[in-house]
């Protein structure tokens, strides 16, 4: 949620900040704003509700000279406190207009802080929790032990805040300096020649430098043109962790597509290849950062998978693989529900936390809860050094590359592959699979990028279908076994992109209620299992299709090449390559992603930035 950029250096800060915000707009697009320091005590702020383009238009209308400084910051907002209006857009200022603040996260004790400030006679100019921090920093800078020291003032304020936050602060009296504090919310420092950057995500500064520094929990960073300094909330120096970003600008650009999502759908074979690469060595599966012993893995008697949204759907698939290969019970749970129902956890429980961003608040809190209960936590994550992997006992990174489209596509496939690697690693450690069986499963997994490539080469038919379905009122999705999570994922994609009513069902449940929804012409997408691998399930699904067809549904069937049995019952047949059952979701999901994107485009929606959504959900 919310994208933050800060810059101090030798360039025109406005250009750098706007360039960074463009790359971070996926994090929130309710409003945007910038604050620029002119180096002579002037602090210019401009904000606008809506997309970043509104802010850019407004900036083009105002006097350019005002925004010519070489240090500044910017923000794209996903609203939590206060409506998405100009008044609530960041940056927020103190009453003197000397301090400007941008913020990501939620300040949980803001009501108390606000009451305290109002009692002291301060009139609030917005409805946000953020604004309180601008007034608090101004007061700390004006008076008392931190007077005249921006870093110390920010530290003092950060110590008073509860909740999760990244706070970036500037003061007109200290141009050429930006101070940021972080707790449970992302912030990275970019290190250039005579310039430094701050951002929620490296994508914001990758154009200028690949040298970055990761900030830890409860840390403050001060950047100037020539240096950066990292401290704790008590202004004591701490060691920071430098790293180098291993992807370049082209990975974060659209590459000729209208939307990032369309490019990301096409990148799925590479996402799978990169996720699998290097994980089979010396005759076995190797995970990335494993701070658990082989004995720990052998002792596990229960697995919980926790995740949200699309990552949760990938987790549902993990259950099929892990139970099948490892003979250990697996429960899959929405991270937002997990800690509130008091799950039974202990040292022999493995909690697998799946998160593309590694910063989803619900999943992070589930991880923390699991660790307090002494369970072992293994994170599957696409973002190096994010909070969830940092707080876990083991990590397996999905190397899908940056995913900018809000709808998860390539990271879903990469998560499914990573889940299967975890299943195989567990099977190997626990001895439920011989090493040659593990090697065979890995080889089958390694053949999937090619199968996905073949699937992608046949999606024109799906695009055409998407355009035909643009006016449908609703679409249902049915599947059985591993086809069921795929049905859920297909429905989620359609809801979030096309704002269309869509539901995924286990096909066997149809007769227990949902069949009442079937009416003349209702499109129903059915994900068929393999006629050979799952003959019994296949024939049951054929019966389900006949039932809905008899009631007037328009049947859109996704089936393996050569599945002639289902052909007569498909109003529209979409074929996918025949692959082993557990791996079928890696191909059957692809047409559903394309379908949702195409329906959304036909309805005139921005598929990268669906309304009301943000890429990373850092609030509970
Ligand atoms: O970053 P995470 O994987 O933890 O995000 C979880 C969900 O918010 C995410 O998958 C969301 O459902 C996507 N927008 C779905 O396309």
Automatic annotation (TrEMBL):
Keywords noted in UniProt: Aminotransferase, Cytoplasm, Glutamine amidotransferase, Repeat, Transferase
Domain Glutamine amidotransferase type-2: 2-226
Domain SIS: 293-432, 465-610
Subcellular location: Cytoplasm
GO CC entries: cytosol
Catalysed reactions listed for this entry: D-fructose 6-phosphate + L-glutamine = D-glucosamine 6-phosphate + L-glutamate
Residues at the catalytic site: 2 (nucleophile), 615 (for fru-6p isomerization activity)
Record EC number: 2.6.1.16
PROSITE patterns: GATASE_TYPE_2, SIS
Cited InterPro entries: GATase_2_dom, GFAT, GFAT_N, GlmS/AgaS_SIS, GlmS/FrlB_SIS, Ntn_hydrolases_N, SIS_dom, SIS_dom_sf
GO molecular function: carbohydrate derivative binding; glutamine-fructose-6-phosphate transaminase (isomerizing) activity
Subunit structure as annotated in this protein's UniProt entry: Homodimer.
Classification via NCBIfam families: glmS, PRK00331.1
Protein name: Glutamine--fructose-6-phosphate aminotransferase [isomerizing]
Species in which this protein is naturally found: Saccharopolyspora spinosa
High-level lineage: Bacteria, Bacillati, Actinomycetota, Actinomycetes, Pseudonocardiales
